[in-house]
Amino acid sequence: MAYNCVVLVKQVPDTKRITGEAMNEDGTVNRGALPAIFNPEDLNALELALDIKDKFGGTVTAMTMGLPSASAVLRESLYRGADDAVLVTDRRCAASDTLATSYILSCAVRKLKCDILLCGRQAIDGDTAQVGPQIAEKLGLPQITYVEDLIDISDGAITVRRGLGNGWQEVKAKLPVVLTVLDEANEPRVCAGKRLMKYKKALSPAEIQAMGKDTDIDTDAYSKELEEKGLLIKQWDLDFLEADMQWCGRDGSPTKVHRIQSVVLAAKGSKDVEATTEGITAMVHDLIEENTIA
Amino acid sequence: MIEVNKAGEVWVFAEQHSGRLEDTPIELLSKGRELADQLGVKLAAILLGNGIDDMPDRLGHYGADKVYVAEHPLLEHYQANSYTKVIYDLIHKHKPQVVLFGATPCGRDLAPRIASAAKAGLTADCTDLQIGRHEIKKTGQVYDNLLFQIRPAFGGNIIATIINYDRWPQMATVREGVMPMPEANGTRKAVIVKETAHISSEDLPLEIIGQHIEEKKVNLKGARIIVAGGAGVGSKDNFKTLWDLAHCLGASLGATRAAVDLGFVDHDHQIGQTGTTVRPSLYIAAGISGAVQHISGMSDSQKIIAINNDPNAPIFKIANYRILGDLKEVLPKMISAIKEKV
Ligand SMILES: Cc1cc2nc3c(=O)[nH]c(=O)nc-3n(C[C@H](O)[C@H](O)[C@H](O)COP(=O)(O)OP(=O)(O)OC[C@H]3O[C@@H](n4cnc5c(N)ncnc54)[C@H](O)[C@@H]3O)c2cc1C
């Protein structure tokens, strides 16, 4: 029995590597100064899909919503073993919150055959963990969040183990199903050399267009050439998805940003304590006096 | 989709498993009480389950004016689909303006599914909630009495205040431990409103085959004093001095992620964004640099003592007592000073 897996992946700024340069003076983040990376837990979701394909057969399609530059994470998915890649891109997607994003992605997933839809538990730029369950709701599918291990797929049902922080749960659900995957689930495989050589030439139509602006390349002919070689990344816009615009972008996003502040560190009343026996004894004395230490 | 209505109640999802009420709804009731009073509306808890015993009364003791109770054999064990359906129906019927969930694995599984069904906005992992006003600069339009949903973003490097003004309910999940536990008041009584759950076995798509929940071995959330160590402690062996200090103070032991990753202590002890959030009376930070991800989990401590040999360590910015020195010398001095006095 073979399964069609669709993996939702996201390109994110590497928030783990935020340094002084990445912060503007007003406390906002200068996204441009941060390297763009494959969202870490989406790599675990991709690995789980590839593992399912290795064990049971089937296909793995990587899909992302973002700017044309997000094609980079699709190429990386292809290097690692994905069979197909879809870029959902449209100016009208801009300013989408998780609700609008999940609506748009659910429209896109409907265009594919999908038995198992996988995503990382959360993306490190927002850490919301909302898009997976919201897509599941929009598609009317059951969700299994926090997957940390695949146990079995048989008779049209999947069994997995979910991590609960303070324990685990083993659950079974009929396919189709939505899974969100934890980083504990697996160790993502490295990019295969041969696939890298082949797919590093893969491009999305939007990227080819951009190339056309800088060089005198014949974009139509080049697109055709890539398509024939299986190197043209599929690109869908909101018209193709037949998305209802009232649920997309800014209009489709109920949450708005009121304010962004930098993290200000300050203590109310503070003093230096000498690292000597006298200094420390005096501090301990103070703390006992005021009942902080009983 | 619910229209904006200023008379809507403030709701708290009363998460319970196997008849045991979690801490988070109780923490949320203290914040919810504040918000409801400011808005001049009722505070209600939403309780789903099968055999709910004295839980509605307890929710009343902790501040709920009302408890909406949906009992059904199929609600015995939490599942996203069944709980979404019942809570979505309740939201439609009663039109609350605010709905709060704990940012527990269950709350983070459930809240987005409900938000999607209700086509409502949802903010994850809030560390504070306030009532405030928002003005759209371009049009001059002003919205009063909105829920400010305040959370760290971008890996904890910024604090964002999120609002929703044109579609309700305003929904948020709130980090565990960031709101103080209220005192129970045994004389407070909540009105109990029985609701019918319209669900069938089709709303239970998951078969729960097995489950294992570990009792928390480390009590950090309730600790009055915490002695915490970081990478600067240097070794598992050196951590013994911290255990000693904790022992003579009757304190719990905390740690940074770096100390956990280095194998000095178990993950149960980790404090911060990906660990436990704590608010003790006294927090002693030894060999901790003070990364935002750590500070976000302990900056509400009433008093902070920082021991570090780097005068520029960010932890000193939030410390009430700054001890510049080698922890290997400072900690033994603290232990003897305490042993002498106490
Ligand atoms: C997504 C994400 C989530 C995270 N979540 C958490 C979290 O929940 N909790 C957490 O703690 N971290 C978390 N981190 C990690 C965090 O960014 C820091 O790396 C970590 O907190 C640093 O721990 P530390 O202070 O022990 O180590 P370091 O930063 O290495 O600091 C060690 C300190 O010890 C001092 N020192 C060294 N020797 C001595 C001595 N002999 N005497 C006195 N002082 C000495 C040094 O001056 C230094 O300040 C997270 C990171 C990311 C990216």
Describe the structure.
- The complex is a heterodimer of chains A (294) and B (342).
- In chain A, the strands form two sheets. Chain A has a nine-stranded mixed β-sheet with strand order 9-8-7-10-6-1-4-5-11, with helices on both faces.
- Helix content of chain A is 30%, strand content 26%.
- The longest helix of chain A has 17 residues, at 40-56.
- The N and C termini of chain A lie far apart (66 Å).
- The radius of gyration of chain A is 24 Å and the shape is globular.
- Chain A has a single domain, classed as HUPs (Rossmann fold), CATH 3.40.50.
- Chain A is an alpha/beta fold and 294 residues long.
- In chain A, a hairpin with a 3-residue loop joins β8 and β9.
- Chain B is built from nine helices and 18 strands.
- Chain B folds into two domains: 10-203, Rossmann fold (3-Layer(aba) Sandwich); 225-341, TPP-binding domain (Rossmann fold, 3-Layer(aba) Sandwich).
- The model of chain B has no long low-confidence stretch (mean pLDDT 94).
- Chain B has helices at residues 23-39, 55-61, 80-94, 105-118, 236-249, 257-261, 292-295, 315-318, 327-341, and strands at residues 10-13, 16-17, 20-21, 43-49, 66-71, 98-102, 122-126, 128-136, 141-153, 158-163, 170-174, 191-195, 206-213, 225-229, 252-255, 282-286, 303-308, 321-324.
- With 342 residues, chain B is an alpha/beta fold.
- In chain B, α3 (80-94) packs across α4.
- Chain B has a seven-stranded parallel β-sheet, with helices on both faces.
- At the A-B interface, α3, α4, β7, β8 and β9 of A face α3, α4, β7, β9 and β10 of B.
- Residues 155, 230-232, 256-259, 270-275, 287-289, 291, 293-294, 297, 307-310, 313, 326-328 of chain B line the site of flavin-adenine dinucleotide.
Architecture blueprint of SSEs:
The complex is a heterodimer of chains A (294) and B (342).
Chain A: E1 3-8, E2 11-13, E3 36-38, H1 40-56, E4 58-65, H2 71-80, E5 84-88, H3 98-110, E6 116-120, H4 131-139, E7 143-154, E8 157-163, E9 167-174, E10 177-181, H5 193-199, H6 205-214, H7 219-228, E11 234-236, E12 256-262, E13 271-273, H8 277-289
Parallel strand pairs in A: 1-4, 1-6, 4-5, 5-11, 6-10, 7-10
Antiparallel strand pairs in A: 2-3, 7-8, 8-9
Helix pairs in contact in A: 2-5, 3-4
Chain B: E1 10-13, E2 16-17, E3 20-21, H1 23-39, E4 43-49, H2 55-61, E5 66-71, H3 80-94, E6 98-102, H4 105-118, E7 122-126, E8 128-136, E9 141-153, E10 158-163, E11 170-174, E12 191-195, E13 206-213, E14 225-229, H5 236-249, E15 252-255, H6 257-261, E16 282-286, H7 292-295, E17 303-308, H8 315-318, E18 321-324, H9 327-341
Parallel strand pairs in B: 1-4, 1-6, 4-5, 5-12, 6-11, 7-11, 14-15, 14-16, 16-17, 17-18
Antiparallel strand pairs in B: 2-3, 8-9, 9-10
Helix pairs in contact in B: 3-4, 5-9
The complex binds flavin-adenine dinucleotide (FAD).
